[in-house]
Amino acid sequence: LLAGAGSSGVASYHPVLDQQSLRRLQLGTELESAMVEGQISVVFQPIIDARTSDIVSVETLVRWAHPRYGAIAPDDFIHLAEQIGRIGPLTDHVLDLALARCRKWLDQDIALSVAVNLSARCLGEPDLVDRVRRALRRHGVPGELLTLELTEGSVVDDSVRSSTVLADLHALGLRLSMDDFGTGYSSLSQLRQLPIDEVKIDKSFVLGMSTSQGESFIARSIIELAHNLGLRVVAEGVEDELTRNLLAEMGCDKLQGFLVSRPLPDDRLESWILARTGVRSAIPGTPHRRL
Ligand code: C2E
Ligand code: MG
Ligand code: MG
Ligand code: MG
Description:
Radius of gyration: 20 Å
Mean pLDDT: 87
Helix content: 40-55%
Bound molecules: ligand C2E, magnesium ion
Structural class: alpha/beta
Low-confidence stretches: 1-9, 279-291
Strand content: 15-25%
Distance between the termini: 48 Å
Number of strands: 9
Shape: globular
Order of helices and strands: HEEEHHEHEHHEHEHHEHEHH
Number of helices: 12
């Protein structure tokens, strides 16, 4: 946006700063204070066992309630945060909110694992592993209860460096999940060389399953190959019963989507959990039990 300075040293800005660029520039400057002022929050979307329907974890999804623009979707500000070099603080903020909740659940004898999305940029930050380690320690959450969701691009772009980072993260006990699988350029064989525990079939395939055989075939292939490599499989974007049944029949391990639940604020998640039989028995008196 501001890279228009010519050799004369005189900035030659684009004559009209369009509305969208203006807004993006403004949002960038507001991100920091938005965190401090509590405009950035998180919601949690349940992930269930495909066979038993028990809740097995929740994915943390960031939300920005802007005082003038209203709700801004993550797809509208994650990329921006990356571009202006503020994705690190944003990630720390989300991790902090997620682990604080996880600790609170632990105090209620609910050992619910939380997943946090990690932007591709974060893998390049030299202090990432240290920050994650310190966050776990600060909240007193065992690494085993944290999953980090990565995107394919982030590990394939610089696979040597990222394999070291991933190994260090893995050594903290946490699990690594390959998000949006099937949309990027990685192959399952590349995944085998990395300490990845799980793949999430991208919702673009899952959403099409009830109407397209092609989509179903892709899902089935991913599940089979992933299982052969010893990886667990999560399907995201499960919206209807037919898709759910198809995935269960294909042996998909975990399901996430509007059919199960929309992403929920903390208090609504707790009532959602309590309303489900598969989990009620696990709540009293069994600290650190994985649901
Ligand atoms: P994602 O990690 O693949 O998350 C899943 C997205 O799919 C979420 O959108 C979720 O609300 C949506 N979703 C879940 N179930 C269904 C369904 O059944 N149907 C449909 N149509 N959609 C469903 P959301 O919350 O808008 O997040 C979008 C993306 O933004 C995420 O995709 C993730 O890549 C990114 N994101 C969200 N929170 C964070 C964060 O804290 N850090 C980073 N780096 N990225 C984040
Ligand atoms: Mg995700
Ligand atoms: Mg995804
Ligand atoms: Mg996505």
